Here is the input.
Amino acid sequence: MSGRLLTDKVAQALQASAAFVVSGAGTQPTIAVALSGGRDSVALLHATRAAVAEAWPLARVVALHVHHGLQAQADEWDRFCETLCGDWQVPLASERVTVQAATGEGIEAAARRARYAALGRMCRAQGASLLLFAHHRDDLVETVLLRLFRGTGVAGMSGMPARRPLDAQGDVQLVRPWLDVARAEIDEYCAQQGLPWIDDPSNADTRFARNALRAHLPALLQAFPSLYENVAQAAAHFGQAAGMLDAMVGRTLASLAGPGRDADTLAELDLSGLRGLPAEHADAVLRLWLRDLGAQPPSTARLAAMRAQLIEHEGGEPAIAHDGLVLRRFRDRVLACRAVPAEAPAPFEFEWRGEARIVVPAWRGELRFERDDTFGVPESVLRAPLRLAARAGGERIVLRPGGPARALKQAYQEADIPAWRRAHLPLLWSGDALVLAAGLGLHRRWPADVPHAPRWRVEWVMRPDLHG
Here is the structure.
């Protein structure tokens, strides 16, 4: 395959995505390329520049680099990408991430999760609705074989899709234009074009499963000369079967799924409906639901644990961490929640000087103030030193004027707010007087001698985009 054909494949992939690019961008569409600095990604950036210059003269190409900091050479790779993009006059966005493995997660999976999250942020910051990856046929075959050895299911055996949403937001498409291109053809392209790149020394470390498999592939190719073609063909067959299964399971999922009911809940499933399904059907629904949320597919053992704890068991409020999500059961629902720290933030003390809103990143939310002389909080109360803090226990609140004082715990239960959320819903205090319980509303009892006006309505608004 000539270098011209490699460029043409990029152009074809862009043309197939043309409607998505135009609808998701302004007058100048932006196309992003994931750039690690390795051979494949350098070749893809070079070919994308050429394809866009010919077919998309108004489009803008940007390179995105993620600095994991996991190896000593990470700074060198960052500098290489900066120099390369400077020489090629391609804008470069780079982000450093901290890789922290969640419970039951390996460092490679944690790095992948951090990388994709960073790429999503950079795409949106750059206005890019397409993100190109340099995965090729050899990567596809290795992925299918590794998954076979690990006992994956039908969807996993289809390998890597040529195009899919980058994450659950759906506004960025991940595109792999070279899935039918052999690694040797990319080597030839780099030689023809005289391209520089850097080698990752970890690629030779056979402690990593993919590298160990790669070391055995020459012997397998001697015994099975059509190995790559046949495995890629099998992956295509599995992909067709997986698509039909998804269509069937998707109809069930559509009848059971709904949006989250609070800022930290991304989505939910009807529990009674799940319990009415055979185990294998419920597994398929859970797997497709997680995939639609942008999460990695769970292993067979992990999926069985999810079904057992979330669907089959009755008591408690289980929490299962999975790929940046926490799956929970609450009453008649299975919830997919954002992962938040287990401990509540420290108290936040401040003075109100008439601001319309006060953002509190530690609590991932903001206070909003609006004049309301009929039902608001007396301004004299708000002018005292204020404090946002977690519940200590035993607090009572009046939720309607003239109503009874009720235990805060009971009020949260009746408001359908689960226990794990309450730790992250602050109380607003003026001295020793309760002003507001986040998730419930204002305290409505004030001494008779407090002036009628001015008064203010105070509201707590969750901001999941904030990081404490």
